[in-house]
Amino acid sequence: MGSSSPAPVPRIVLTAPQGRSGKTTVSLGLCAALAVRGLKVQPFKKGPDYIDPSWLSAAAGRLCRSLDPFFHATHERLRSEFLKGAREADICLIEGNHGLYDSSMPELPDGAAAVEEGQTPFHADPLGGGSTAAVARVLQAPVLLVVNTARMTRSTAAMVHGYQTFEPDTPVAGVILNNVAHSKHEARLRQAVESACGIPVVGALPRRENLTIPDRHLGLVPRDEDEGLLPVLEACRQAAEQYLDLDQILTIARRAPALSAGETASIQAGNTSPVTIGVIRDRAFSFYYPENLEALEEAGARLVYIDSMHTPQLPDISALYIGGGFPEMFMDELSANRTLMLDVRRAVEDGLPVYAECGGMMYLTRRLHWKGRSSAMVGVLPFEVEMTSRPQGHGYILAQVAADNPFLPQGTLVRGHEFHQSRLVDFDPDTPAAYNLLKGKGLGAAKDGLTVHNVLAGYTHLHAAGASDWAPGFVQRARAFASGQAVYSTALPGEVRQ
Length: 498
Prior knowledge:
The protein is of the alpha/beta class and 498 residues long.
């Protein structure tokens, strides 16, 4: 029997010369408009991000997935992750970040870039392996360039031509004009781009104020946080249907060639029964990568979701996962649910394994301070946290596990990211930390990650692709707790007061 070739996966990359060009607006509108046509649209977001994916998920009706050269490390792993997410999809839309050729991927120290034999590391790409352009080349995905044309006409063509030729084999296949002033402006832009660049203009959006999603201190407001923002999504869909050539965009997407990826190892849970892990997931804590939740399930977890503001007590669980989010926006509501907070604290004292990231760590501290207000938190970690006027840590993290902890082997290198606008109060900087940071701010002094009992909490957001031991280690610790094995114990000074 002969083996059949993989079927092509229709796909496009939406990107721009720079941020604030309108690519998220176009991506949302395009996802929603194609979904209304009855297509199964699978969105992806390039780069570490939770907020844009929350909107893309709502627009497409399918969970947005992450594609990031730093997390996935090699071309083969990124292709494999893309194909996994693309299953059963009619079209895949990948929204880039920053400008098409911009990369914030850090340099790696000696030995940290090592990959399996036969794999191609993104760090080896001389053209800038961390960019959206690199992702487009690896996925052989046609690129649609969203250009903010305010106060430009023929210069737009020069810009597009430069983006076509700047890095060889970057498949720029079409242009979407944004902030078009009037019909004559559009006609001049189309003529200039199509004659000089030889690629089609597949849409032209006028200046519209109702296509803007509100910002806050860490970016856009998450989609799950406010139902009142849904009219913005509907406006984006209507604009896409009115001003984009959806049929031409589909034709471009369907020209993408078939992709193949080598075999990649998957986590196997074995024949053991699932162990129950609680996940606090609501408006305050919404920063979860679907890949992380899937990795836990593949390792043998059954996930149960908990609302931090309305669930009165913990369900019957063997571990707890508290992701990031905006607890400061809901600090009064969180503090008002004291029964859950007391239950979490008692469970920690009884040895419940807990993994908490950023906002989740803030929830476990004694108090949260913001804009002159203060609310009591769980009190597991013996310090307080305050919000500041600007980011305290922003970007990728490369961490080496330096100390004994519940979930990760010592010496392991993990790849993650941080974006926090808070800092710890009454924190002893000499406190031992789980991670030595080769890249990133974390808690300060090039370290992050605090352990107390079975808790690991820090500012680092992990992605399963960049921390392959995390999910199996978490599930293993949950299984040990469920079987009544001894409590893991690492003490912080002044921890857990009775």
